[in-house]
Structures are given as structure tokens and as C-alpha cells.
Amino acid sequence: MVKKPLVSVLMPVYNGEKYLKDAIESILKQTYCNFEFLIINDGSTDRSVGIIQSYRDTRIRLVHNNTNIKVSATLNKGLDLAIGKYVVRMDCDDVALPERIEKQVKYMNENQNVVMCGSWMRSFGNGHKSVMRVPISYENIQCHMLFNNVIFHPTVILRLEELRDKGFYYNIKLGFGEDYELWLRIMTCHKIVNIPKVLLNHRIHDEHYAMNLENYKSMQLDAADKMRLMQLNRLGLYINDSGVAMHTSISCFRFRHDRDFIEAAECWLNKLYMKNKDKRIYSDINFKEVLGYYWFLVCNNNTCLGLWSWYKYWGSSLSKISNIDAKLIVKFLVKCLIKWHRYGLKEQ
User: Fold this and answer.
1) 22 CB contacts (<8 Å, ≥6 apart)?
2) What is the phi/psi pair of residue 218, to 5°?
3) Could you list the pLDDT tens digit for every one of the 348 residues in the chain?
4) Beta strands 35-41 and 60-64: pairing type?
5) Coil, strand or helix: which one is 131?
């Protein structure tokens, strides 16, 4: 290379032959060119290495692990090997849009106080086709992270020097949720944001986990619960299993369709509000909006209860702190009216 690359694109590969060409070519065809493409082969046993070596682009730097050391350890190795100012994450089954790196580098250059930047992404494959939008500002991201990881791992760009200086590496002891846990640590002292543009097409497929998909999903959920519990403890909430179950139900949109659940959810969200009012962990304005958003979701997903859900929503102080689009409010009312009219449900 004539000059030191500003960007290191970091992509671990383990038996990714099926979609690898799409991923590689989406990076090589970027409108931004000053990067090294650091590909780490994590002990693949398929044709992945041959596919990578078939490309003669001098920006590709192929590194091999002697054995399969898993994704977290491979990413940490990549963070040590990278020579760019920025590290761009990429997965070997996704497709980066042509202007992805250009737009993210421009944003990072113009916002020196931001250490990590993600983006929206589009899911495709296995019948999926949707744009996945997530919160944009640091303050909103902070609040939403109490419920879910709202930074898509394969969309991020990071400032490498800050990661190394603070020892921000992936926790290799975690089998799942290593990105969620790292983002939480970074957020304690640095700003992270999302660009409100689709910069990545994220492929949905089950090949890697086809033999035990349900167990895989269960382990993902357990890992996310641990991250949520860490944040609840920071708020001063050292809760029992029932508290964890309620927070998980709300976070994962697993709403029971009965009045007891709605009332318990209202109590829980109000408890979060009062705890933050005392601890001041999250921006008060942003936290109110997020709690109001989840309160709306709880009630809007219980229109089967007819107008009772409508009155319950507006009777709560949580509705006063929400910032829900008027069109969604109207749709909520219409669905409640339809159920009430069709089944004769009476509000109380």
C-alpha cells in the first residue's frame, strides 16, 4: 500500500463459503478506498480460504487462526492487528452498501466526540425483508439499551485508539451478547450514535445453528437478560426472578393479553421512572419518552381487551410522558373500538 490506510475493515470468517463472495465484493466495491481489509480465518474447514485467496486486491490482509477460537477472541485479535484509525466491522454473510464506509468515515471525522457509530440496516433472507430502524442520539440509545441492544454489531465503526487506551475489548468469557456488553462499557465514558440511514443488508439464515436453533435463541436471551440485569442493578434495582421476568417480557415484546399483566407492567415502568429520578443515570426527558413508548406498546398489543386498554393507557401518568405519533394513537383507538363492538367488551 502506498499510504497507511485510515480504516481497517475487520471480518472474521468461519465456514462462510456460501455467502462469502457477496460480503467480500461489497467491501471491495466501496466508494471509499483508503482501507485495509483484515480478514481472519478462524479455522474454517470449508472452501472459505480458497474463496478469499481468489481475490488479488492488495487491500486484503488474510490472517489465519491455528484453531477455531470463536468470534470474540478473533475480534480481539483483529483489534490488535488493525492499523487504521477506524475499525469497521463486517460479517461474512452480510452485504455492505457501496457508500457505507464513506458515510461513516465522514461522520466520525466531523464528530470527534463520538467513539462508535452504527447505522440502520435492512434484513433479508428466509422470508425477511424489512428496514430495521434504531434510536439515533446517544441519550436515546442509553435509555433503550436498558431494554435491548440497539446498536447492530455488523454496522459499527469505532475509533481504534480509544478502544486500546481504555482496554475496550470483547469479553471472551461470554458465549453470547459480547457486543451488547462491550457497548455498555464504552457508553460509560464515550458517546455512541447511529446514523439514520441503511448502510448494511443483514442476511437472515439458520445454517450455523440449524441443529439446535431453539437452544441458540435461548442462550441469546439469557445473555441479553444478564446485560439488562447489570443496568437494573446500576439503577439500584436488585430484583427477584419475577422482576426479571417482567422486564424481559416488556423488552422482548412478550405481552400477556390480560389486565393483570398490563397493570403489573404499568407498576414496573413507573418503578423504573422513580429509580432513575433518584439515581439520575439517564437523561430525564429521554427516559420518560422511552418508558412512554414501552407503555404504549404494552397497551397497543392488548386491544383484544377492547376499550379497557384505551382507558387504561390514558389513565396512566406514563401516557403523559410518551411521544407517540398521532397516527399510531388513532390506529390504537380504532382497534380497541373494533374489538369492543365485535365482542361486546365493556370498559370499566
Assistant:
1) 93, 95
2) -65, -40
3) 457 999 999 999 999 999 999 999 999 999 999 999 999 999 999 999 999 999 999 999 999 999 999 999 999 999 999 999 999 999 999 999 999 999 999 999 999 999 999 999 999 987 778 999 999 999 999 999 999 999 999 999 999 999 999 999 999 998 889 999 999 999 999 999 999 999 999 999 876 555 456 676 788 888 999 999 999 999 988 777 667 889 999 999 999 999 999 999 999 999 999 999 999 999 999 999 999 999 999 999 999 999 999 999 999 999 988 889 999 999 999 999 988 776 654 444
4) parallel
5) strand
HSE-CB of 197 using CA atoms within 13 angstroms:
13
In terms of C-beta density within 10 A (0-12 exposed, 13-18 middle, 19 or more buried), how is residue 63 classed? middle
At residue 73, what is the residue type? A
Q: Rounded to whole angstroms, how far apart are CA atoms 142 and 135?
A: 9
Amino acid at 109: N
pTM: 0.92
Residue with cell 454496522: 155
Cβ partners under 8 Å of residue 4, min gap 6: 83, 84
DSSP character at residue 204:
P
Burial 161-190, CB ≥16 within 10 A → b, else e: eebeeeebbbeeebebbbbbbbbbebbeeb
Determine phi and psi for 160, rounding to 5 degrees. -65, -40
Domain segments of the chain: what residues? Answer: 7-211, 235-343
Pairwise CA distance, residues 238 & 231, whole Å: 10
- Sign of torsion, CA 126 255 213 52? positive
Count Cα atoms within 13 angstroms, Cβ side, for 285. Answer: 3
CATH superfamily of 7-211: Spore Coat Polysaccharide Biosynthesis Protein SpsA; Chain A (3.90.550.10)
* Nearest-5° Cα angle at 149, 283 to 98: 110
The C-alpha cell 382507558 sits at 311
Q: What residues contact residue 211 under an 8 Å CB cut-off, 6+ apart?
A: none
Contact 95, 67 (CB under 8 A): no
